[in-house]
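Consider the following assembly input.
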Amino acid sequence: MKNRKVKTLKKLKNLGKRIITDIQNKKIPKIKVPSRSTSNIIYDDNKRHYVLGDKYGVRSLGNVKQLRKIGQMLYVANFCKELIKKGKTATLREMYYVSEGWDVDFNDQQESNNISEDLEIVLGVTREDLGLLPEEDGASVYGKLTVREGDIEIDAMKAGKSGYTIPPTVDEIEFVDHDVERVIAVETMGMYHRLVQEKAHKKFDCLIVGLKGQAARATRRFLKRLNEELKLPVYICNDGDPWGFHIAMVIISGSAKLAHVNHELATPNAKFLGVTATDIINYDLPTDPLEEVDIIRLKELLRDPRYKDEFWRREIKKMLKIKKKAEQQSFSKYGLEYVVDTYLPEKLEELEG
Amino acid sequence: MKNRKVKTLKKLKNLGKRIITDIQNKKIPKIKVPSRSTSNIIYDDNKRHYVLGDKYGVRSLGNVKQLRKIGQMLYVANFCKELIKKGKTATLREMYYVSEGWDVDFNDQQESNNISEDLEIVLGVTREDLGLLPEEDGASVYGKLTVREGDIEIDAMKAGKSGYTIPPTVDEIEFVDHDVERVIAVETMGMYHRLVQEKAHKKFDCLIVGLKGQAARATRRFLKRLNEELKLPVYICNDGDPWGFHIAMVIISGSAKLAHVNHELATPNAKFLGVTATDIINYDLPTDPLEEVDIIRLKELLRDPRYKDEFWRREIKKMLKIKKKAEQQSFSKYGLEYVVDTYLPEKLEELEG
């Protein structure tokens, strides 16, 4: 069993033991649950991502109103303990259905999700550690990286054109070998296939990662591990609009909603490689006018602490001024090869000096 | 170059030659374009999918109004010819941006998509043959199948837990080897991972395919090829609601919109394995009440020629009567293993006899 799983199993058992010991000692069992309310979600300048503050609530078995929630949490804890022991995983949806057989079942999926999140926070583990997997798989990865999943080794150059897919069980992946110097992640699979076809992995000694829109948790964790364990710089090339910016920013600085696990998911050293408002002007890209919803969103980003550094403020203001946005694929105006032959080398030069 | 590419290249060249010859002979060049209007989309009982009827329009270089469309089609044809020669592909979006440099560019993406579709129909090829790829990748495949993409062989048992991803260039895949007797496709990646974990590939000697919702073109073509080239029965296990039914039906009988390529995409021999209204009753599954939109959709399906056989009519009517729907994952009510240990064996027995 992997180290993280062993630790999680121990934490789960300890939670149960503590409750039983309290009961044996005729003390009323209590569980401290850190608060996830907006007022307790704080942007940490040092860590460069959102964290939870120190507010918390106490759930006591001596309080009739809290009995149900504690009961549900213990059922979930027990379910996860069995999952880990059996080496299995389940989706939150599956657990919700399994809970139909419990003495304290859930009214709806939301209640079940909340209790799982409470348990993550109480134990200081991720839902993946608990064996509770998200529905969606991660990004596509292409390039000179060999990973191991269980007893199988996978070479991300030999997994086919669509690459190696990051599984939800991302912490069980071992990095066996690599021969790359950086990671270039792109928003769309259209651009991913462009980079593969134009041999960007050779030209830039890089891994190519196709995010498929908003990055899945598994993708974010994988990028963080590449950055921290393999010391690879991570660059993100998205569409030049508020949505493209934010897909990158959630990879870089995490989300407020996941403040309790951002330390496992955020890659503060990752850099946005484009498309910027400056690129739109410098490369004379085909554009679409900003829509009302884009403008509202850009103004929101200006008030967001994750966007407070000079680069972002300048680019967001410039985009509001030129009132235009552009897609990654718009570089094709100059031919399919342009993005790899001209744009990316120039931008990498700029960022890496 | 693959056979299909060679054929397509020849067709593209012939299209150009015909126009030049006409001009040299002082004849006005004309192109016959089969109509894609609703009145020309017909359900073919023998083929068991929609086809185009025999209505067509003629675009003539002698008609000023049609000059632009013919010009665009020839530019697209030329672009595709170059793609094939270079062994490249492009997304429709990329081609749209490339077209900025043409003498007859497009007003919007829709115009560009329409012309590409015209070209598919005029030449009797698919957009994939032309090198114009959709944005999205195909399904995840797990099990004893080895394929070749170019000079790389991929074993779908050794591509990691998330399996082998079907690339958009699905006709360039060669089936090298397999040791399975059937294919089981499921709607969600949650269910895909359940089947992998419970070793469904061993229990049922099957390939496990994770559709990720509505099946991509590449997935539909891949399933058809598995069924026709490898003679493997294909079963589809989706949610028990009109959307799950229809995801299966588009795999089985194609869509009206793609009438001109259904013969390449539809797998009329594929079978729906569940969840049915009968299953909801027999297995006493956890359900949600049908919403108004579900009821409207189910009634639409009853009027759809693809659903005219006895099985579908009975199940749709039964669902309208019990007013309930159920998800694939609801079998977890009986434990995570139940779907593989009990449900699927019983259903396969029923379908295979």
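Chain A touches chain B through 50 residues (CB under 8 Å). Ask yourself how this observation constrains the way the partners meet.
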